[in-house]
Design brief:
The complex is a heterodimer of chains A (about 350) and B (about 325). With about 350 residues, chain A is mainly α. Helices cover about 75% and strands about 0% of the residues of chain A. In chain A, helix 4 crosses helix 13, helix 5 crosses helix 6 and helix 6 packs parallel to helix 9. Classes of the chains: A mainly alpha (about 350), B alpha/beta (about 325).
Amino acid sequence: MKTEKKNVTKNTVASEKQQSLLFLILVFLIISFLILDIFLGSVSIKASDVIKALFNNTDSNFATIILKFRLPKAFTALIVGIALSISGLQMQTVFRNPMAGPDVLGISSGASLGVAFVILGFSANLSPDRINEFGNWILAIAAWAGAGAVMILIMFISTRVKDIMTILILGIMLSSGISAIVTIMQYFSNESMLKAYVIWTMGSLGNLTSSQLNVLLVSVFVGMVLSLISAKMLNALLLGENYASSIGLNVKFSRIVIFSCTSILTGSVTAFCGPIGFIGIAMPHIARILFKTSDHKILVPGTILTGGAVMLASDIISQLPGSETVLPLNAVTSLIGIPIVIWVILRNRKYSGIF
Amino acid sequence: MLLPPLSASAKKGELIAVIGKNGIGKSTLLRTIAGLQPSLGGEILYSGKNIAEFSKNDLAQNMGYLSTETVKVSNMSVYDLVSLGRFPHTNWIGKIDNENHSAILNALEKTAMTDFSDRYVSELSDGERQRAMIARIVAQDTGVMIMDEPTAYLDIGSKYEILHLMHRLSQKSDKTIIFSTHDLHMAISQSDKIWLILDDKLIEGAPEDLLIEGTFDHLFDSSPVKFDSERGTFSFKREERASVSLTGEGLMRHWTEMAIHRAGFSISEEKGFPGIVVPSGNSDHWQLITADTTQNFCSIYELICGLIKENIRSI
């Protein structure tokens, strides 16, 4: 059926029916992954015990593992996947660059610089696992500022340099430059500050305190709302600034909205979970392949769902269900994301018009 | 880029060609009219109101813009592209309701793109893509369409197709279309009015007015190109080798004349040598008559070769 259709009308757009079906499938996947993520882990717990722990207020060890560890971790995975994927989509459209993403262009590094300033610059008391709600907001805001600063810098560069490769290389330079600054800061900081920072850079989904999860939840929710509002602007920006402006888009305003959104999303995730690679760059491409559209009214929710589902799946894989080992999450997301990125590059060697 | 002081006007439903040398500021002028960049001085009035006073959205409802910048977005269907023209007409989320949908279908129909609705923009030919881009402006439903070299990079067939489309839009849908072009011949034959930008001024008028006044001659003062006001075509300024007399009628005469001109000869009205007789009646040969010989040629190419040889010998 599929091949037959390909031969006849290779170029047809996915119908609305197909798209709604895809949305349903993705929602279903997210729910099942969420459940799986809670049920599976390095400590094997019987399904009945998991349900008991979730719905009865028991005080067993299992309940502690489920409620204090697995449940927040699963939700963190979902939120992180959503946040990184939206920021990837927005950056790819705004920079009109299929290879743009929070980690590639140095936005994540910018966020970690913000975090480094807070942890290394002020006090070891602000280390992520010891600070209160207020401190967490400071950490998040510092990360937003760092991400935003790098984003503005990249924007400034990309108005002068149009070549995608050049911008990517400059993004890598920027990342290296930022890590150099962080290294210098580490050199001058005291032992306890350094320890706090190193622990942060190892960050994973599981180390979040409930107050950190709250901050993450609120910021990603704000980011999601902003991203849905920005769908119309993103559509216009697909045509480039000139055309976008000619059909009535206030380009400056839209940039402020989209950049704040991306900074908030990338910044918050980086602040609490450390840099997580390749989800942001790869997920929008999967959404484009699935939904076969360039319309952000579909792509934004599509990317949100795809990102959430894949991040949950990565988290499940990283726990290696059935064994007691846990793989570093960053390795899993890279192994999932890199083939997609390579495929995107190979599919369109001219680097143009991938999205 | 500094344009000379200028003033020009456009009426509803007019197709206006903007002509000028490369780098004289055609694009700047068009971008300024479209409100994409602030004017460096002076004002642009639309329906008696300065465009600087329009809100971004109001302006977009009145002015559409097209440039040579190509849109490279894969996964974008023609329908999606055209629906972007509805941007200033949709709500904050960009919902395509029935009204917008019918405007899009209407635009597709007017540009003969209905069959392409579900095709991806990245898979269209240059001409089709340009038509889709124009459909986008039609959907935008603006009174004025600004097009910066809409026919650049297109092959001859698509060029005329696009121009024909523009012509139809201006006449049938009452759109004012202001477009820049380097194709003077096309501009003269199709547009209602020409804005000719020269180094020191802008001249506007019907193409024929400008032809009669000999205005186009100034366009290429310094270059070896010469505009032939009688024919409406260009030719190179050449040193003339000699004059030739020509006898004959019709199409054969027309093209023989063209070839003789190109070879650098002028045609004199008086009978004299060398003389050329164009095929007519039962003769299908070109005759080249000199003072002492008569030669026959069976193509214009051979005739011209013979003429040049004869000319060299006589010197």
